[in-house]
Amino acid sequence: MRVLPAGSRGVLLEVDDLAAALELRALLLADPLPGVVDLVPAARTVLLVLDPARTDPATVSSQARALAAGANWLDASEPPGPLVEAHRAEVPVVQVPVVEVPVVYDGADLDEVGERTGWGADGVVARHTGTTWTVAFGGFVPGFAFAVADQGPRWSVPRRAEPRTRVPAGSVALADGWTGVYPIASPGGWQLVGRTDLAVWDLQRDPPALLRPGVRVRFVDVSDTAAAAEARTVG
Amino acid sequence: MSLLVIAPGPLTTVQDEGRIGHASSGVTRSGACDRGAYRLGNRLLGNTAGAASLEVTLGGLVLRAEAALTLAVTGARCPGVPWNAPFRVASGDELRLGVPAQGLRSYLAVRGGIDVPSVLGSRSTDSLSGLGPDPLSRGDRLAVGRATGPLPGVDQAAAAEPPAGVVTARVLPGPRRDRFGDAGWALLLAAAWTVDADSDRVGARLRGAELRPVDAWRGRELASEGVLRGAVQVPPSGQPVVFLADHPVTGGYPVIAYVYDGERSSDVDRLAQVRPGQPIRFEER
Predict the structure, then answer these.
(1) Which one, of B53, B265, B16, B89, lies nearest residue B160 by Cα?
(2) Is the pLDDT of residue A82 over 90?
(3) pLDDT(A168) > 70
(4) How near does any CA of chain B get to the CA of A25, in Å?
């Protein structure tokens, strides 16, 4: 684990991969450091946000090193490698909630993703629903989360060459090795494979974000049910 | 008790200390850009810490008091209203904030605080996510809360006006300083930067030099990582952005430095007052 400076109110901890970042976050939640008011987990780092009235970066840095040393972690002697693609995360088996996300798989990019992966549209749906996914960290808008597959083949879906100016709210999407749900309409470059009615962001709910780091997700194909319901209303 | 908005000015939003503890959900802190000026206003009026005020960008705000109220304006000095001092208005009085000659953001504090609904523990307008109240428009009616503490009895605070001319900001090395080498760091400190016109509550975009990663790091991507207010982030263009209150929670471009952002003094507060076209220099803390 490397301890990197992040200004007057932060300390950035860097580890080698996503699994280590998730474990580090779990450690910091189980044993909170005094004066640390927020944690920002990401693919290979956890940023500790501190209250300068209660602590300081030097103190938090020492405490974080002690915590990591206690967890038998070694400082890396080599400089960090290039961007780590999502991979099969060795997620510890713990009791975490599994959220079911009902999806109608009629996304604009489903066929293209089917072709690029060689799995075909049906194959993409089968693999997307065939594993649980673990939320690694939140994203660029409230409620958006990056999730990685717990099992199965390595997902490697490039982002769209040209992002859309507007991705509809509820879109279920893929990029690199991640999957995510757009909580609100926003610009986006991810590949759209389906849509869900599930409110992943709801200010009336506590907490408002459904897909939080550590939460596991299972996508459920409700395309047939939806099509049947639509047919009934039309007919 | 309330205030009626007659004219909102170029941009006026409700701001307080912001939302702390929700970064994992993708919610940034937001809150007043010049935190020191915002806090001073509340102290002058005996408000509880965290009471919501109005952040007024380049003046222009016109309000009608619909009750007798005690107010204070801090930060950039707007002609037409007292500055750094509590003052009373009677019901029906009109309040006009002129355009400040220097500085960018003024804070209008009201004794009792602006009482609009809170979202995730804060009344701040987050311009990045849209959380919180909308920016002020003509016809908006802002409720004012009840004052709880005594007035401190200060007639005038001795806080300086935001400077015109070059603003210096102290910087600390950021987590990715090594990507830019000693030459990049030296350039950060030597360059004559100016704030670009498209700067906003998300960040002050700077022009003046191009910061480039050293050869060993060129083309090597960075996984997105958490960033904070005050981060000096370098996108592929080489032209840095200094993040302000509505910064994104994570960023995939390297942060070469952090502007000093202490409790008692903050150079991020100083940068929040720099107008487009105004020069900035960085110095090592």
Answers:
(1) B265
(2) no
(3) yes
(4) 11
